[in-house]
Hints:
One of its GO terms (molecular function) is DNA-binding transcription factor activity. This protein has helices at about 5-15, 20-25, 30-45, 60-90, 105-120, 135-140, 200-215, 225-235, 250, 285-305, and strands at about 50-55, 55-60, 95-100, 120-130, 145-150, 155-170, 195, 220-225, 240-245, 255-260, 270-275. With about 300 residues, the protein is of the alpha/beta class. Strands 3, 4, 5, 6, 7, 8, 9, 10 and 11 form a 9-stranded mixed β-sheet that branches.
Amino acid sequence: MHPFSRFMVYFLAVARHKSIRRAAEELHIAGSAINRHILLGEKELQTPLFERLPTGMRLTAAGELFYACARRWVKDLDDLTRQIDDLKGIRRGQVDLLAPEALSRAFVPQLVADMKASHPGVVLNVNIRDNKRICQALLSGEGDLALVLDPDDMRDIVVLHRMTFPLGFVCPPAHPLARKSSVRLAQCMDHPVIMPEQPLAIASVFDGLLRGARISPPVAARANNVQMMLSLVAAGIGICFLSSLDVMAEVLRGELAFVPLAGVQVPHLTLALVHDRTRQLSRLTRQVEAMTRDIMARHARQRDCRAAPIIP
């Protein structure tokens, strides 16, 4: 618990759980003590921060404003603590990383493993979010760094590193498409397709390609989860459209095949590591940045090696 403001910690816990009882259970503090501090805070501010309902506690309009301020306070205090640790040369602490679900299978686990191996005292807190909301969550102080797919240009978002992954079709290794080095969209429409659905970022990309080519694929199934799509492909239900990042682990194990989509207008998936321009990165966060950059470079080398032609 932060020693500088019990009220702030109690307030955040009640706002998060919408209940004094559940906040007390989390903090291992008597509910009466939490309620007393909340009442004292409301008296000092001369306005109620919560509506006390039969079903629990709900933030008032003033409470919502205070909640946003309190979260920034916590992040600023964390930043200060990390900077003090940097001055003392302490290699411990934690970094909050925001990432989309698409990276939860291969990229992020590798990052966590590498960080734990090189910096055992560092805890990497990974928060999986909807890709479209990651940058806004970062600006709201919910993370130190963020991995985001195809980021939009935003005033206070700084791109530290980026790399691209080809898009294409995933199929079983024995599938006729697996023998090709690349395929065009029309070539794949003779095979049942597992359609990606929102909130997968790939869904809007695939939909745009189909509209542009005026093609309606034979739909075998629909799924909004990468793992489900890959499981359906492995079961022989159909082929699916993903990025090489999504299926990298399965391709390396020989379980599935990835065939890049050819064509001048075919987009690539961009993965970017970003941070909030208004916040200074601590040395610990810079270490996570460097580790992420190394993993990106490693993936790029592996991709280039697989794409290189074999010369007899």
